[in-house]
């Protein structure tokens, strides 16, 4: 996206307007204006000016959501120049980041203070504001999603004013996962922990073996997840154990990491996905080879190096959260769904993770320990039938869709799944009565 230079007044000039699309290529829009504020005051002025002109405003970070949650028909605020550490307190472990800060930059910013985020997802390309606003999470039955790490926010309101929500503020649990509906996030304060290491054990295992002792493995591990390769009876498991920061590091050798994470998991996988799209009949054989190849690694490294992976193969994704106790039934239903449609060949593995209950009003884990099932399709394939069947299955198990991933629910269906949904709408009416921060996606999921 084109950058801009601040004018003499300090207000950023609009970038040359052109179309914007998200990473997955599922959303494309041509905004009336694109602005790139270079400071929080400039962000305030940009919001106020748009609202005064009767224009809707949406902030964009990395564009990594698969839904239209960041689609901005009127004014797109590119937060890429609002990155960095505003302040840090190594005693309390609280750090404040500018909203556009990318997750992959956070470890470097926290390192001088000996701090780390308690948990991360497996992708770190998102901005911190986008990640918390859509409900990004990692895995670990005792660990909640990223929005639960938020202990303070600064929200820019329609008139350009700052709404500061400090730790303990009654509205923080709503705004920390606010879908961009309550204001534009300018700063995020996170509760961090002392830097730690993770010992990773990655295996290729029989799926039946994994499922047979699943409850114990999830309970006993700090962070457990598995990937099932459709059309096979194999799973790739990853078990991460937390170690003190002073523990010895035993990282993967650079060549092994490059072969596994760049060559096989990206370059070769991209080629096999393209081949599967062209010749679906080869997918089962390819999946069997992939399932056998993954795993067999043990290493110990800094937590961000273990939690996250580089993914360059473009895909589309749908993910649902279900009550943790219903995971076995939901997963069995997904296996049957795949087996009952032999003509549908699925090259991407199914990802299964866990999270602890939290108090964020619109969190998929609000009030309940949660398991997540994520399904994917190569971006050149039509996910329609697969995602629709998956969604119906998850809804039958009390599922809640990930806000940043593809789903078909609208406000009435979502209201049934979130005890504080109506309360959130009332807060939205109070903070944004004129719907300055609305777009088509929010009209669908929250109501116009």
UniProtKB/TrEMBL annotation:
It comes from the Bacteria. InterPro entries: ALO_C (IPR007173), FAD-bd_PCMH (IPR016166), FAD-bd_PCMH-like_sf (IPR036318), FAD-bd_PCMH_sub1 (IPR016167), FAD-bd_PCMH_sub2 (IPR016169), FAD_lactone_oxidase-like (IPR010031), Oxid_FAD_bind_N (IPR006094), Vanillyl_alc_oxidase_C-sub2 (IPR016171). Keywords: Oxidoreductase. The keyword Oxidoreductase applies. Residues 27-195 form the FAD-binding PCMH-type domain. This is D-arabinono-1,4-lactone oxidase. It comes from Arthrobacter gandavensis.
């Amino acid at each position: 996206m084109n950058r801009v230079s601040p004018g003499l007044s300090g207000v950023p000039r609009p970038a040359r307007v052109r179309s914007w699309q998200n990473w997955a290529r599922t959303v494309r829009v041509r905004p009336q204006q694109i602005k790139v504020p270079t400071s929080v005051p400039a962000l305030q002025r940009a919001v106020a000016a748009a609202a005064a002109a009767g224009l809707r405003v949406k902030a964009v970070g990395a564009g990594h959501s698969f839904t239209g949650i960041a689609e901005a028909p009127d004014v797109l605020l590119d937060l890429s120049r609002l990155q960095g550490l505003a302040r840090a307190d190594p005693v309390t472990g609280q750090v404040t980041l500018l909203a556009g800060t990318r997750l992959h930059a956070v470890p470097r910013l926290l390192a001088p203070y000996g701090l780390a985020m308690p948990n991360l997802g497996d992708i770190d390309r998102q901005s911190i504001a986008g990640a918390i606003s859509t409900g990004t999470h990692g895995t670990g039955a005792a660990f909640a999603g990223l929005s639960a790490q938020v202990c303070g926010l600064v929200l820019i309101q329609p008139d350009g004013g700052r709404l500061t929500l400090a730790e303990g503020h009654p509205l923080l649990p709503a705004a920390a996962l606010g879908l961009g509906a309550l204001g534009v996030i300018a700063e995020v304060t996170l509760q961090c922990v002392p830097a730690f290491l993770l010992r990773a054990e990655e295996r290729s295992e029989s799926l039946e073996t994994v499922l047979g002792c699943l409850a114990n493995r999830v309970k006993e591990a700090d962070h457990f997840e598995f990937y099932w390769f459709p059309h096979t009876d194999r799973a790739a498991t990853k078990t991460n154990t937390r170690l003190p920061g002073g523990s010895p590091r035993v990282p993967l050798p650079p060549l092994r990491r490059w072969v596994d994470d760049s060559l096989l998991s990206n370059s070769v996988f991209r080629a096999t996905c393209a081949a599967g799209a062209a010749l679906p009949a080869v997918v089962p054989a390819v999946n069997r080879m992939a399932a056998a190849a993954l795993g067999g690694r043990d290493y110990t490294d800094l937590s961000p190096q273990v939690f996250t992976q580089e993914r360059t193969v473009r895909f589309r994704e749908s993910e649902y959260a279900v009550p943790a106790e219903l995971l076995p039934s939901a997963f069995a239903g997904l296996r049957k769904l795949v087996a009952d449609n032999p003509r549908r060949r699925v090259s991407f593995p199914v990802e299964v993770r866990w999270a602890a209950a939290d108090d964020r009003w619109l969190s998929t884990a609000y009030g309940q320990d949660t398991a997540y099932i994520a399904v994917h399709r190569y971006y050149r394939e039509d996910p329609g039938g697969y995602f629709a069947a998956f969604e119906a299955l998850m809804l039958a198990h009390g599922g809640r869709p990930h806000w940043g991933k593809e789903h078909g629910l609208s406000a009435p269906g979502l209201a049934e799944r979130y005890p504080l949904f109506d309360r959130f709408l009332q807060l939205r009416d109070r903070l944004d009565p004129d719907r300055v921060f609305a777009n088509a996606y929010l009209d669908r999921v929250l109501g116009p």
